[in-house]
Design brief:
- The protein is of the alpha+beta class.
- The chain is built from five helices and six strands.
- A hairpin with a 6-residue loop joins strand 3 and strand 4.
- The protein is globular.
- The mean pLDDT is 94.
């Protein structure tokens, strides 16, 4: 697994997390498709947030050494796909994400990085350490 691409993927997850994306998941798909090495999947609470998440990635991914090759779905804001070459980012409106259930399709062996869950656990541990 290419460590640089994994670090860029985690950087994308961090950008999305800081912009309040929901349920961020990164799935290593190299063995499953030629489209990309990683899929990043997340949700926004409303169409406006889905678009804002895409805009934030447009602005901040060059600092990770990534160039947006193309983007689809921005106009409607229900499912935006951003192509960074080795990384495809899927930003969903909640109902669309539930309907397409990409995690079920691509994360066959439950090996995805559940970024939001990991960050929330880290924050709980920090808060507990401060109390104790």
């Amino acid at each position: 697994m290419d460590n640089e691409i994994k670090q860029q993927t985690l950087g994308i997850c961090e950008i999305l997390y800081n912009k309040k994306a929901l349920d961020i998941v990164a799935i290593h798909v190299t063995d499953k498709t030629i489209l990309a090495d990683w899929f990043v999947i997340c949700s926004g609470r409303a169409v406006q947030q889905v678009k804002a998440l895409a805009d934030e990635l447009d602005e901040k991914t060059p600092a990770l050494g990534l160039t947006l090759r193309r983007s689809e779905g921005y106009g409607e804001g229900k499912w935006i796909v951003q192509d960074y070459g080795d990384i495809l980012v899927h930003i969903f409106y909640p109902e669309e994400r539930k309907y397409y259930n990409m995690e079920r399709l691509w994360d066959e062996n439950d090996s995805a990085i559940r970024f939001s869950e990991q960050k929330e656990e880290e924050e709980r541990a920090k808060a507990a350490a401060k109390k104790g």
